[in-house]
Amino acid sequence: MSHQLTYVLITPHSVRKGRTGGILSRLISQSGLELVGGRFFNPSEKLAQGLAASLNEQELTAHYLNSDSFFGEQRQLLALLFQGADAIKKISAIVGDDESMDGRGETLRDIYSEHFLIEVEEEENADVFYFEPGIIAPTTLQEAQEGLALLAAHSDQEGGILDVTSEFAEGTALEKTLVLIKPDNFKFPNMRPGAIIDLLARTGLALVGFKVQNMSVAQAKEFYGPVLEVLEAKLPDGRIHWESIIAFMSGARPSEYPEEKHAHPGTERCIALIYQGEDAVRKIREVLGPTDPSKAPHGTIRKEFGQNIMVNSAHASDSKESFLREIGIIHIEENNFKKIITS
Asked: For residue 198, which of 28, 9, 328, 322 has the smallest C-alpha distance?
């Protein structure tokens, strides 16, 4: 079996309808592959046409990519990268293609695509055909290679953290906030990362940023720096507890890891998400629940997936100021998506 890199596109319609979590759950758990990258795009006509030309085995999808449904105004297209043995075949089988959209949930296209023909008998040639694939993936090595090259080439200018202010009523006070889906959700390929995103979707906020993150020891130390003082004031072994948090997030205890390696990417994986909307900080933290999962209300993320105060599934910024500090530490704008493809 060959080790491959492939991509998945979650269409603007699916992103806007809050379907990202359900799609991601199935992709990770069913494929057993590694999710190694993700980036939002506002695709240009040039990128759309290039992707359409690369998918020469999928005529309807190519037509969709050349339509106004895919590019033009502000579009929230999410591109994901998966890596592993026979990745192209595995992902393609889970996603489906133009010929496999009429089953009962066997593929993601079965569940999330929308397509129908309306015949208008009164007028000649007035039939209406609607096609929205929901999710797109290459089916061959050539399609994957061409698509990956296009996404990498356009990722700087057309990718990153989007701003969807235009989607909200004029005068709405908008803010952004950060969520980290923590390493305890990535011990093996499972549905938890997608399920967390699915629960976050009920806030009605726009998901506008996505980055797969391997936090370094240095980043974890800075990120959780404010926690150290609190722990040392409350506990005689507060620093030991703090180092456990750093190890949980990065994979190494600072005191046991060579200083010169503190800036290297860690061994533990997170997903960093950016949400935008009215009262975003409060809404996200409400769905997340208290730090201690045992005290969290039913239906919150930490009640569903958390184990204890440290291994509690996800982090969310507690203020607009914290959001700005935290995204600076993890370098949210860094284009590691392109780096993964080109390397």
From this structure: 28
